[in-house]
Amino acid sequence: MKHCLLNLILFSGRRKDILLLLKEKPRDVDEIKELLNVNASSIQLHMKKMKDSGLITQKGKIYSLSEIGEIIVENMQPLLSTTETLGENTEYWLSHDLSSIPEFLLERIGELGHCELLEPDVGHLFETPKILRDSILSSRRP
């Protein structure tokens, strides 16, 4: 029976983690086990399912993403990033009107990564909070 690729990937955090590891570079089972801190028996079934579905290939002891796997992982990362960003502060996102945020920015909301709500101290309302200032100064992009 053919597996639905979406179910195969998204309903298993372990398979998702394996695919993301293989996106970085091809790996053998020992390296995958070590990086995920699991034993071989807990990933063997996952590896078999992904091989059978054409997401990964095996040459000797080395596993890598297939061409289909590369396409899927490349497209799955924005979804994962978006769900992580929105999931971290669900209460905030649900309690605020997002309609003033331009569509092109909403489409890229997953790029925010970890974010935190900074509420200014009323006594220092017109000063830039130190944590924001430090974050801007250490930013990778100007």
Automatic annotation (TrEMBL):
Transmembrane segments annotated in the record for this chain: none
Annotated Pfam families: HTH_5
InterPro entries xref list: ArsR-like_HTH (IPR011991), HTH_ArsR_DNA-bd_dom (IPR001845), WH-like_DNA-bd_sf (IPR036388), WH_DNA-bd_sf (IPR036390)
GO molecular function: DNA-binding transcription factor activity
Residue span, HTH arsR-type domain: 9-77
CDD domains according to UniProt: HTH_ARSR
Taxonomy, superkingdom: Archaea
Protein name stated in the entry: HTH arsR-type domain-containing protein
Species whose genome carries this gene: Methanosarcina barkeri MS
